[in-house]
Task: structure prediction
Amino acid sequence: MANYREIAWQGLWKNNPGLVQLLGLCPLLAVTATITNALGLGLATMLVLIGSNILVSLVRDYVPKEIRIPVFVMIIAALVTTVQLLINAYAYGLYLSLGIFLPLIVTNCIIIGRAEAFASRNNAFSAAFDGLMMGLGFTLVLTVLGATREILGQGTLFDGADQLLGPWAKSLTIHLWQVDTPFLLAMLPPGAFIVMGLLIALKNVIDKKVKERQPQVAAEPSVTRARITKVG
Result:
């Protein structure tokens, strides 16, 4: 249980892919103009991450070390294609919004990194849990970034939720205030860089405050040893 708690802590906070490892920044910054796009990409990445971790863990003893990376990439590519086809079939509006960044999940460093660093060294259940926690941590960062940019840019939340959840979700859109002209800095990639930097700074401040509140372990007193040399 302690091991799984550590895996969860690593994925959600301490070693978060977006805030600490800074992996997958290209889609993270490009498609998070709204919380709907952020959730869609985050969930797609999470599904691929969990599936690839499980499959890599199951075949790890049968794949020669010399070709493990190409095999891992083939597994990831197959899963990404499956997820892409499912989104195309059941959430076509979201499929159009995410565009090229759906197939580019294949090259996401988070997925190949977890396959190599964790899934290829652990059993399937642990690998699946690691994929879930890393994917959830990445999705949370995407969601916060998307929500912040959407609020600042157009004064709404869950705009276009029907693209992800269906026609019934149109009622989920929340209009916080009326915006005559969208705030382009928040909607464009430069605004994403600024918000992302603020999120990383906030995490560092929280970590520093938590560390300061932890009880300090007193250092052990050093012992001076005298060397006596017998003469004569």
The chain has ten helices and two strands. The beta strands are 156-157, 174-175.
